[in-house]
From TrEMBL:
GO MF annotation terms: hydrolase activity
Name this polypeptide is given: Serine hydrolase
Pfam families: Beta-lactamase
Record keywords: Hydrolase
Coiled coil regions in record: none
rRNA-binding as UniProt keyword: no
SUPFAM superfamilies in UniProt: beta-lactamase/transpeptidase-like
Residue ranges annotated for the Beta-lactamase-related domain, each copy included: 66-376
Amino acid sequence: MAFLREQNLRLKGLVAVIGCVFLFSCQEKGETKRFSLWGKKEVRQTVPVPASFTADSVQKLSHHLDSVFKYFHKRRGFNGTVLVTKYDQVVYKGAFGYADFYKRDTLTLKTAFQLASVSKQFTAMSIMMLKEEGKLSYEDSVQQYIPDFPYHGITIRMLLTHRSGLPNYTYFSDELWPNRQVPITNKDVLNLMAQYKPHTYLKPNTRFNYSNTGYSLLASIVEQVSEMPFAEFVQKRIFKPLDMTGSFTYSPNMAVLTGKVATGHTRYRQKRTTDYLDTVLGDKGVFSTVEDLYKWDQALYTDKLVSPATLKEAFTGTWLKKKQHEDYGFGWRIKPLENGDTAVYHGGLWHGYSTYILRNPKDHSALIVLSNLPNGSLSYLKDIRGFLYPATTDSATTPNKGMVASAKR
């Protein structure tokens, strides 16, 4: 009997190995469908890789980017980590400077940064996952989940697209929160709004008006619908399935529970301390690394979290009147690049952190930059975009030429 059990286990192991080895794929309308012996299907969006994208071209691109970011670090004060991809492949990554200037603790690619408003895309994804599961609708009113919410006529879609007109909680909390030594939570923000009814900026759905309050409300809705804390939902439903082991949400004891975390600084390299607003999640509060954000970027070309149809709406503009050739979807800004492609991106700035992620679906490229020294060095990202996506009609307008020349000297 022991022999038979051993043979049965060996047979199961062999079948499992065969199931892993004999995966095959077929191209269909830019999607790769992978099938296992058990019939499970995984869909991944693909783009054709040009013959010019060779190991040699990747090496040259990596060398140029290394020169540019070293120049940024030495001459313009860039302090942070960076990762760049093209055709789904990492072509460059690097770490420059210190996680803590006082301790002279150097940054690594494993260092986590507060993502600031880049956190909003994880909040939007949480809502999209619940919508796809039929647990909510974008047209639902806030009162369906938060009955005592005092502002009427606001839907989940308006929160996602910054069309609620709600006042900024980071401002009215300064006036209404009695003790700034006590951390404020999402529930506390809701209570302040219910009790004091701060004046709104606009009537609902009037126009785009960027709202941190709206995304903190979305996190509260996720908690009501999923019946678990927002931090737990994001960890279980997004970070863990994507193997984002270096990602987490803010908590007072996070330094004990996590690995290396970059300290936020002022532009003069003085350490920023956390305050009572850090405990509000949804609009900010996610910490991650450039390598984990690469996993996030890659997952958005698959159906691991939501279907392509659901995700498409997140990258679809919602502005009725175009402003400066940009738009906004669900947690993502949308803008044309110098070469004519359309990218989705978001930046963040909060308590000594400055962050940026840009994705170009046309060539499956990404630019991910995390910094803990908001000294204006990320203002030169337009030069990096110009280098990665040079204008084709008039090379004289390409903004990176001077920068690249300076970096080579």
